[in-house]
Amino acid sequence: MNHHSTDTHTLVAAHALGALDGNERKDFDAHLRTCEACRQEAAEFEATAARLAAAVSQAPPAAAKARVMAAIDGVRQSPPRVPAPSVAPALGGLLRRRAAPWALAAAVAAAALGGVAVRQTLNGQDLEQQARQAQQRLDTVSSVLAAPDARTTHGKAANGALTTVVASDQHNQAVFTAANLPTPGAGKTYQLWLDHDGTMRPAGLIDHDGTVILAGDPADAGAVGLTVEPAGGSPQPTTTPLLLMALPA
């Protein structure tokens, strides 16, 4: 599939998610050899996707295997799958790029929700609701990461936590990811802030390693802050920021 040079840079997210076909991948690999900006951005997307999956992964309940094995005899076998007709290359490439957010959602969901289907059956409607909410968050996160204008920046908090922010003007949203985040302590939580010309506005809570969709409007914000606050959060920061990281420009 032929691309205009102005389109090539927009394939970074699809490349990082393995969503390019053979010819597109070959052409983009050639482009990467001459474009330092795309090489760095592709590496950041790959690292962020891996960090997201690791941060939200959950172990299945200890009793899940025994219950599944006990119930497996009553599960009807699925019919054989018939391969779908092939799609024309031009349309296939377009669909893959448009489906990049779903590809990331599937990749993250595989780690985050691997046991959800089993737990839904075992534990009922509460987990179904949790699964729906988790899928909505994954859809939002993946849409931001795969946006053509997605921009990434990395930082390190004073307590050693490694942080990543991915922002998209197109979606007017930003995603914050933390790794190696120490426990905040009893009765405490980490709170995120958006810095609007020196005014810190609440942007969400994060208690441990994970990913948060920043609340508020990142369009007019210059930086993301992280503080330790009383459980439930505060209307204004009450401690010195552990992190004040400029939003990706």
Overview of the structural elements:
- The protein has 249 residues and is of the alpha+beta class.
- The chain folds into two domains: 7-57 and 89-145, no CATH class; 151-246, no CATH class.
- Helix content is 41%, strand content 21%.
- The chain is built from nine helices and eight strands.
- It has helices at residues 5-8, 12-16, 22-32, 36-56, 64-71, 89-98, 100-112, 116-123, 125-145; strands at residues 151-156, 162-168, 173-179, 188-196, 199-206, 210-213, 223-230, 243-246.
- It has a four-stranded antiparallel beta sheet with strand order 1-2-3-6, with helices on one face. A four-stranded antiparallel beta sheet has the order 5-4-7-8, with no helix packed on it.
- Strand 2 (162-168) and strand 3 form a beta hairpin.
- It is flat, with a radius of gyration of 21 Å.
- The model is unreliable at 1-6 and 86-122 (pLDDT under 50).
Q: What order do the strands of the largest sheet run in, or round the barrel if closed?
A: 1-2-3-6
Unreliable segments of 5+ consecutive residues: 1-6, 86-122
User: What does the radius of gyration come to?
Assistant: 21 Å
Largest sheet: 4 strands, antiparallel
Quaternary state of this entry equals: single chain
Number of E strands: 8
Present the secondary structure layout.
Blueprint: H1 5-8, H2 12-16, H3 22-32, H4 36-56, H5 64-71, H6 89-98, H7 100-112, H8 116-123, H9 125-145, E1 151-156, E2 162-168, E3 173-179, E4 188-196, E5 199-206, E6 210-213, E7 223-230, E8 243-246
Antiparallel strand pairs: 1-2, 2-3, 3-6, 4-5, 4-7, 7-8
Helix pairs in contact: 4-7, 7-9, 8-9
